[in-house]
Predict the structure.
Amino acid sequence: MKYSRLILLIALSLLAGCQRGSPELLQGYVEAEYVYVGAPLGGELEHLHVQRGATVKAGDLLFELERSADVASRDEAALRLQQAQATLADLQKGVRPSELEALRAQIAQASAQLTYAQTELTRIEKLRKTFNASEDELQQAQARQRQSLARVAEVTANLQTAQLGGRADVVEAARNEALARQAALQRAQWNVDQKQQSAPADGVVFDTLYRVGEQVPANRPVVALLPPENIKVRVFVPEQQAGKLQVGTPARITADGINGAIDGSVKFISPSAEYTPPVIYSRDSRTKLVYMIEIALPDEQPVKLRPGQPVDVELKP
């Protein structure tokens, strides 16, 4: 990389020496920053919707990977979520209405038995006072009355419990299970969505890196896009002139095959210097000290230039 930069600097220096006309013109070239679009998941390339040189808009579909397994996993996650939500709803509602009616009927039956047991106990107590009932009969009547009371209390508690629904800890566990299933569905849907990618910005398809039917590894780019705003001009400025420049300095750019000049502005000035060979730290070698700068172009004009194209740059500090 360093040797290619040195060769480029030498070539630019030679071109500058041959330049006829204004000595303020600098030799530069057009540089591009490509946007490489890939998928975070791997798979077979099923559809490629663009070709090299095509112009796309932001949101246009670029390619699709095979995703039948991901769709099946998404559908399974959706069914498991429905099951978890149904379980939670069942716990929150309690028992069914018919079961509640059965419990109420049991309460009515137990209450009737209690009434009969109390009546029988009262009768036996009266007979006991006249010695017409034995002590054993009295104790049996008292036991039946206590059993009836316990039965009424039991079925009443069962009805109250049924109306409350599931226990708080069981309901909370079911709610957490439903939330976990919801997260699993979202993850499965994300996997499905990632198998197709759209253009993140307007631009030109610079290259397609895979063909339909090929296996694409995860995070490997399939399409290289060149948005117009990612085209810039790069030029190396002598040390004497670099000190006069700042971000925003106007620049005029001309190139072969383009009528008129293109207006731009400096957007970046390298903080480090570079030497054309030989590198000798002496007073005379200062003339070989250069700084790389980048020039931003207006949004409506970059499409006139092509990456790698040589240009002439006039800076106006």
Remarks:
- The chain has three domains: 2-33+228-315, 37-68+193-226, 72-188.
- The first strand starts at residue 25 and ends at 32.
